[in-house]
Request: fold
Amino acid sequence: GQNIDQPTEMTATEGAIVQINCTYQTSGFNGLFWYQQHAGEAPTFLSYNVLDGLEEKGRFSSFLSRSKGYSYLLLKELQMKDSASYLCAVTNTDKLIFGTGTRLQVFP
Amino acid sequence: DVKVTQSSRYLVKRTGEKVFLECVQDMDHENMFWYRQDPGLGLRLIYFSYDVKMKEKGDIPEGYSVSREKKERFSLILESASTNQTSMYLCASSAWGRDQPQHFGDGTRLSIL
Reply:
């Protein structure tokens, strides 16, 4: 079966660091994407991991452990504009399977 | 920048109507996708296409069909709309390759009354 788990909601303070976890169990695995989606807008691509380890892109980093079926998105120096939903998605052969998303609220 | 354009942001239709949702991309992408997004359920794949005239069923194809007559355009058709098809519909496109990110349109919020 296919299962992708993310926390439903998280809150954090401006300037802080937050880690959003994603665990997956899928029949096939090629790689893992993270997307950001502001309310009422389209999801936008943040990162892609195919090998184990950490990928850093400015304030955002994404980690993957294939053996553990686990990924996280790390957001540093949080800003108010980071308030959004964060979607974890696993590539399985020719399709993307999405988690239900984590809604992050950043407070001043 | 990749641009994926969906024909309507908001649409209201009646039960039993045939509904067309249009999507156009301007980056010559081979792959195009239709999803619906519902609270608590996330993004679910309805249909996708790898090339003109080709279509593949996603996870929830029942009640829907698609058409891809030109590379840049992918249409979603609700043959006979029902209230349980009220949802946000998102179109996406990507270049060929499993490591290629999908680029999404702004979505169509469809209400079936």
Q: What stands out?
A: The CA atoms of residues 42 and 72 of chain B lie 26 Å apart.
